[in-house]
Amino acid sequence: MTPPPQPPAPSAPAAPSAPLRPLTVELLAFPKEVPALRHAVREYLGGPCADVQLCVSEILSNVIRHLGEGTPVTVTVRVSGSGDGRTWVEVTDPDPRALPVLRQAAGDDESGRGIALLDALALCWGVRQGVAGKTVWCVLAGG
After folding, report:
1. Average pLDDT of adjacent 10-residue blocks, the chain of 143 residues
2. DSSP 18
3. Could you tell me which of 77, 89, 91, 87 has the C-alpha nearest to residue 27?
4. Please, where are the H alpha helices in 5-137?
5. Which residues have CB under 8 Å from 115's CB, separation 6+?
6. What is the pLDDT of residue 106?
């Protein structure tokens, strides 16, 4: 007599996925780079990420507006390795003096809302100043 078949052994729990390597993009800040950067961020994160894309494009647009086209920047996007899904965005430029300012734009102002959008979307944001430049950063909730 053949013994009855045994149920399959329970699977071991899946190991947590390793955190993604950071996306680091060095570029010259020109308007044409904004949509290209948004696309690179979406590809890196593997799907819809409107808040991250908006924050990246607003910070890069501030560099273009306040420091000028062609300013060299380094953009870094990374996902938390702790499993909370938080995303860090950092944009580094060579001017430690031109700091972003959170302001209230009037209804008919054509600009001045970028940092307000960043402030509304991010869990936190800030600026790290150094001798040779600054990094504007923000942290967004996982999704």
Report:
1. 48 46 96 97 94 95 94 96 88 90 64 78 94 95 77
2. P
3. 91
4. 33-45, 50-67, 114-121
5. 58, 62, 100, 101, 102, 103
6. 62
